[in-house]
Amino acid sequence: MEDQAVSCYRHPDRETGIRCTRCERPICPECMVSASVGFQCPECVGQAHRMTPQPRTVAGGRVSHDPFLITKLLIGINLAVFLWVQAAGDKVVTDLGLYAQCGTDFTGHQVCIGVANGEWYRVLTSAFLHQQLYHIGFNMLSLWWIGAPLERLLGRTRYLALYLVSALGGSALVLLVAPNTLTLGASGAIFGLFGATAVFMRRMRYDMRPILVLLALNIVFSFTWANVSWQGHMGGLAAGTLTAVGLAYAPAHRRALVQWGTCAAVLVLSLVLTGVAVAQVTS
C-alpha cells in the first residue's frame, strides 16, 4: 500500500510520497539523500555524520583529504618570497632578515636597529627568506622529504604549530649568540622537523638509524661549513624536539591539553629568550 501524498517537511508547497527511512518525515526529491536502504532527510544524515567517529592521525589530528597541504603552502610561500627577493634586491633581506644591533650616533645617543628596535616580526619573517638558489633548493627539498610525512602523521594544525615554534626557537638562539649577524632561511624550522621525526620514530618503535645518521650529518654540516648559522639550526632542533615530545607522549585522556600546552610553553620560552637577547643588546 503506497503512502498518501503529503507535503515535504522542509518545503510545504511540494507534495511527496517518499519518507525518510530513519525519522519517517516526508521529503521531496531535493531533500532526499541516498542511503543503503531508501532515502534519508538532511537532518538525519547530518546527525549520523556527527555521531560517526572521525579518523585521527597518530598524534590526534584530523585526517585530511590532502595530507600534504601545509607543506605545499609553506614551500609556496618560501618560493614566492625568494622570487620577491630576486626582483626587489637586498632591501627585502635587510628589511625582513634577523639581526639586532645597537650603537651610538655622532651625538652620543644610542641607536638600535632590527629586533632591538622593536621589529620583532623579524624572528618569523627571516625564516621565509632565501637569497641563493642552492639555499632555497636544499631547504625546500628537505622540507618536502621530512615535512610531508610528518604532516600526515601529525595533522595540519599540529604540524604547522611545530614548524612555527621551531622557527622561533632557531631565531631565539641566533639572537642570544650572534645578534649582530644577519641571518635568514628556513633551516631552523626544518631542523625542528628533523628532531620531531626522530621523536616519533622512537615513539612508534621504528628503526631510528636512518634519521639519526641524517641528523648527525646535518649537525656536522652546521658546524663545519662557512656562512651556516649553527645557532639557528640548533635552536630549531631543540624547540622542535621539545615540542614533539609533548605531541608524541601526551596521555590519551588529556592529549589536546598536553599537546597545545607544550606548544605554548616552547613558544613562550622562545619569546622570553628573544627578550633576554634584546635586553643584552640594548643594555
Automatic annotation (TrEMBL):
Main localisation: membrane
Alphabetically ordered keywords of this record: Hydrolase, Membrane, Protease, Transmembrane, Transmembrane helix
An individual GO BP term: proteolysis
Domain Peptidase S54 rhomboid: 118-247
Coiled coil residues, start to end: none
Family matches, as SUPFAM superfamilies: B-box zinc-binding domain (SSF57845), Rhomboid-like (SSF144091)
Subcellular localization: Membrane
InterPro entries: Peptidase_S54_rhomboid_dom, Rhomboid-like_sf, Rhomboid_protease_S54
GO molecular function: peptidase activity
Record has Transmembrane helix as a keyword: yes
Organism domain of life: Bacteria
Membrane topology, record value: Multi-pass membrane protein
Residue intervals passing through the bilayer: 160-178, 184-201, 208-226, 232-250, 257-279
Stored Pfam families: Rhomboid
UniProt record similarity statement: Belongs to the peptidase S54 family.
Name recorded for this polypeptide: Rhomboid family intramembrane serine protease
Species: Actinacidiphila acididurans
